[in-house]
Every structure is written in C-alpha cells, then in structure tokens.
Amino acid sequence: MTADHRLLTDKVALITGASSGIGAAAARVFAREGARVVLAARREDRLKTLVAALRDEGAEAEYVVADITRREDTRAAVAHAVRTYGRLDLAFNNAGWGTPREPLHEMDDDLYDSIMDVNVRGTWNCLRDEIAAMLPTGGGAIVNNSSVGGLLATPVAAPYVAAKHAVVGLTKAAAAEYAAQGIRVNAVAPGTTRTEVVSAWFDAVPGVEAALHAATPQARTAGPEEIAEAAAWLCSDRASFVTGVTMPVDGGFTMV
Questions:
Q1: Which of 93, 111, 231, 245 stands the most exposed, by the fewest C-beta atoms within 10 Å?
Q2: Enzyme catalytic residues
Q3: What residue numbers bound the domain in which 173 lies?
Q4: pLDDT digits (tens, 9 = 90+) for 189-205
Q5: What is the DSSP code string of 101-149?
Q6: Domains: count for the chain
C-alpha cells in the first residue's frame, strides 16, 4: 500500500495501554497506516521492544512510561508527543483493566476503586490533556476503548460494567462539547478479544470460550488487531462525519 492510500499518513498518534494486547496491535496498525506513534504504558521493557520493532520496519515511534491514573503522567505523555512531533492529531485511549468475576455483594471497596480509577479516571485524564493539545492546532480525533460491557450488562462484573458505561458517557459528552472545534471523539466496544488476560481466563475456566462463541453470531474470538483496525478507521479522515459513536466490534454479540 502506498503512503498516499494509507489511513493515517503523517498523523501524530498517542496510544495508551500500548505494551500488550489491543494497544500493541494498535501501535502496529497505526504505524502501518502512516502515523508517527507515541506509545504509553507502565511496562517499559515491553515498550522498548515494541518501539524497536516498529523502527526496524521504518516507522517513527517513541514511548513514554505512564500510569494513566496519574494526571502528571498523561500530561507528560501528551507533552512528549507535542515536543517530539510538533502536535497531537490522534489518540487511542486503550488502557483499561478488567475485573475478577465475583458477585457484586462480595466485592470490596479497593477492587471497585481500582476498576473505576483505571477505566474512568484514566480516560478522563487522557481526554483532558489530549483535547487541550488538539485545540490550538484546529482539532483531531480521539477513540476511547469501552467494551460490550459498556453497552449491556453481564453478571459478576458490576464495577467493570459501570466503568465501561461511564467511558461511553464521557465519549458522548466530549464529542458534543468539542465537535464545533474540530475534535471528533468516538469509542470502540470490543467483544471477547484474545489478549493475554483473556487467554489466561480461557485456560483457567474450561468451557468459557465455547460458551462465548455460542453467544456470538460469528462464533469466534477476535484478534487484537481487529479492534485496532476499527480504532484506526475511526481516527482517520475517512470517518470525518462520525463523532459521539460507540462502535461494537464484537462479531454480532450485541446485535438486536
């Protein structure tokens, strides 16, 4: 594919949660589509390896060690992108955390706080700093990572469901507030995706993968790159009239 036909040619993109899973896949997809990428996550060793691999393939890539629950870290990540590449055009707020599957009445306060902190406060922190960086340059595009759990409820995952619904709400609120200033804000809602955490869950609970396949019209688990492709499209100019949307990428799981 030539540069002229790539989705994100010469765009500057920040991707959080980029050390593994959907975030690492997004780093590869965004770079392949022509973006200059700044990758943020907590695990520096993985970020170093991924950035080196991207550079070996000819991409422009940087990394920042960041915990998105800390405002100073999200500020630093955005500032690094602007300092290095002169601006921030795109962001994929992918970092998040799933919950151990426990009954609501048995979950403790610390678990609730951790899930809300990463998924909601983390997205909130990222949005504020990304929007502030995009406004002076005439706009940009942001994609938040929600979940099918942000569109419907599943048992024994109450704080996660609440958090991912909140991400959908933040997405709509930011989209409504900044559309006139050229900033589009959307979300993806992945179904079951074969990340490290999900693979470990499948291994630990025999039969759960088959049960999820039975509930999914496409009868399979997504690869992380399939979610990344959707995020890349939403960030691209080809989605120029799309904002405030939460796009299911779930093999039909939430189909009504």
A1: 111
A2: 160
A3: 3-193+224-246
A4: 999 999 888 888 898 88
A5: ---GGG--HHHHHHHHIIIIIHHHHHHHHHHHHHGGGT-EEEEEE--GG
A6: 1
